[in-house]
């Protein structure tokens, strides 16, 4: 069908989209995914569900749905492909509408997603249209935007090379594709047992230089089920094989993009250093064997990076890569590197200087921290410590970082409590910072009243156990500021049972997150306490299953 034909269909409200749903052993969830696609309305000409030789009844569920809904077509594979690429390719081959949209069997399309994407595709004659995506943590329901700030709603990108940072969005599911564009450039997913097939498909799309239209609408809800018996590929990072697969996918993607555009190729390398590398590093775990294997694999891969590609990466990614290249085995301060990879990053003391007086990673590994003096204060990897300071308060210590904070003149600090279920932060009153007695940075005692925080959460509708991230906000005399997480010290992580006039008793558990940052669980009353216990048991079962 020509572009003019597709425009006619879409603007008159006619069918324009084939939604390709892939499923493997997901009988309990695939129905919801299919229902969300059918509920898009008449703009969806057909929903093509590809069953990848499931053994759990997924095929029966899909056939039963197809008997009720004429727009649903089911493709049954006789052999499992081992990945997501082949069934998606089967769906493209079976599609008949001018546009294609992808959906995984455990996710959903929000209402109006297809209509919004098609409208923009037709208006701007764009072979690719992209919208917003959220990662929805289940069962909590907390939603985390995918790549916030990367796109501007309403913009039209004439060539991907004009916006090389778009390589950071490797998802295929938050985009609408013109089928004629895919056919013209023979764009398909890698077949078979290929993990992170999105990376390769997306690189092929960008390499073909399509016009890209952007909508501000939410078009995809990515469900994240961390406690599932079989977690998704993107969460199954306990085996070094997963990292090897990611490297393999990135290798193909970066080569594809570099051949099409030097700008896109370089941006892809920078994305790997700043996103992929840091994500896996901060989730490195405690197993020495895994750490050693991961280090060797990563270092071997980074040796193939051009110096210019490392130079082009953001400062924190550049420093991390250089530390990895500087030593053949995991260094003694590996935990420090893990904390530096956290979000927000924190460079723990002590701070060393090189022969020329400039900042370096450490005395043992004098990797230059070049560009540190040019980073805005808000981007500095500042370390802020927290320890008990009597009843209802914590002592905060803000460490200087090679004189950068001293030059800005820290004046006050406050605590921000961010509900992990989503919502606005609860901030304490700013407290004046004073020079620490030992001369190491600045300190202050800040209110840490957990019963009052629990009451605020309750007023905001938080029921049962409440979970909060804790941040420190530092304001400086020159007008600059920064917000970062806290490193818990001393006996701050001790569980407490606090008297409460409202709840009778409040169970409070300050804890250290996987990134080493302070967080807080509050369980008001008997009901909250029961939720607290259940969650602890669930986390214990999840750890044992892994």
From TrEMBL:
Recorded superkingdom: Bacteria
Domain Glycosyltransferase 2-like: 18-177
Keyword Transferase included in the entry's annotation: yes
Group of enzyme by EC: transferase
GO MF assignments: hexosyltransferase activity
E.C. number(s) listed in UniProt: 2.4.-.-
SUPFAM superfamilies membership: Nucleotide-diphospho-sugar transferases
InterPro entries: Glyco_trans_2-like, Nucleotide-diphossugar_trans
Keyword terms of this UniProt record: Glycosyltransferase, Transferase
Signal peptide per UniProt: none
Classification via PANTHER family: GLYCOSYLTRANSFERASE, UDP-GLCNAC:BETAGAL BETA-1,3-N-ACETYLGLUCOSAMINYLTRANSFERASE-LIKE PROTEIN 1
Name the record gives this protein: Glycosyltransferase EpsH
Organism: Streptomyces lavendulae subsp. lavendulae
């Amino acid at each position: 069908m020509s572009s003019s034909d597709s425009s006619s269909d879409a603007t008159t409200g006619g069918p324009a989209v084939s939604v390709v749903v892939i499923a493997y052993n997901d009988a309990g969830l695939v129905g919801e995914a299919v229902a969300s696609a059918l509920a898009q309305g008449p703009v969806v000409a057909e929903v093509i569900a590809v069953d990848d030789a499931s053994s759990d009844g997924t095929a029966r569920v899909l056939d039963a749905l197809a008997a009720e809904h004429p727009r649903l077509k089911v493709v049954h594979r006789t052999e499992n492909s081992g990945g997501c690429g082949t069934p998606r390719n089967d769906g493209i081959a079976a599609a008949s509408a001018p546009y294609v949209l992808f959906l995984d069997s455990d996710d959903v399309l929000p209402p109006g997603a297809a209509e919004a994407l098609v409208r923009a595709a037709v208006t701007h004659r764009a072979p690719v249209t992209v919208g917003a995506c959220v990662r929805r943590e289940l069962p909590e329901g907390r939603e985390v935007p995918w790549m916030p700030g990367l796109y501007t709603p309403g913009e039209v990108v004439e060539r991907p090379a004009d916006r090389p940072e778009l390589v950071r969005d490797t998802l295929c599911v938050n985009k609408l594709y013109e089928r004629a564009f895919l056919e013209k450039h023979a764009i398909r997913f890698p077949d078979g047992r290929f993990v992170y097939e999105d990376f390769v498909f997306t690189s092929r799309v960008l390499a073909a230089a399509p016009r890209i239209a952007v909508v501000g609408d939410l078009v995809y809800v990515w469900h994240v089920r961390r406690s599932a018996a079989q977690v998704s590929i993107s969460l199954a990072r306990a085996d070094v094989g997963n990292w090897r697969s990611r490297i393999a996918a990135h290798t193909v993607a970066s080569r594809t993009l570099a051949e099409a555009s030097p700008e896109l190729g370089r941006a892809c390398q920078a994305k790997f250093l700043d996103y992929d590398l840091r994500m896996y590093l901060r989730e490195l775990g405690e197993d020495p064997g895994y750490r050693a294997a991961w280090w060797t694999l990563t270092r071997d891969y980074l040796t193939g990076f051009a110096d210019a590609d490392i130079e082009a990466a953001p400062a924190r990614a550049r420093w991390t890569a250089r530390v990895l290249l500087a030593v053949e085995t995991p260094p003694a301060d590996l935990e420090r590197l893990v904390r530096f990879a956290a979000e927000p990053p924190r460079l723990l003391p002590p701070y060393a200087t090189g022969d020329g007086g400039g900042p370096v990673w450490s005395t043992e590994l004098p990797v230059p921290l070049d560009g540190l003096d040019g980073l805005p204060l808000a981007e500095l990897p500042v370390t802020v410590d927290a320890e008990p300071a009597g009843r209802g308060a914590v002592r905060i210590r803000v460490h200087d970082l090679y004189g950068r904070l001293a030059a800005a003149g820290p004046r006050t600090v406050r605590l921000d409590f961010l509900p992990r279920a989503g919502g606005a932060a609860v901030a304490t009153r700013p407290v004046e910072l004073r020079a620490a007695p030992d001369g190491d940075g600045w300190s202050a005692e800040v209110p840490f009243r957990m019963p009052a925080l629990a009451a605020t959460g309750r007023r905001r509708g938080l029921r049962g156990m409440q979970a909060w991230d804790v941040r420190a906000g530092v304001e400086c005399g020159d007008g600059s500021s920064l917000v970062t997480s806290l490193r818990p010290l001393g006996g701050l992580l001790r569980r407490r049972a606090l008297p409460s006039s409202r709840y009778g008793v409040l169970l409070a558990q300050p804890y250290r997150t996987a990134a080493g940052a302070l967080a807080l669980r509050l369980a008001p009353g008997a009901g909250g306490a029961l939720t607290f216990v259940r969650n602890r048991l669930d986390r214990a079962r999840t750890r044992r299953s892994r």
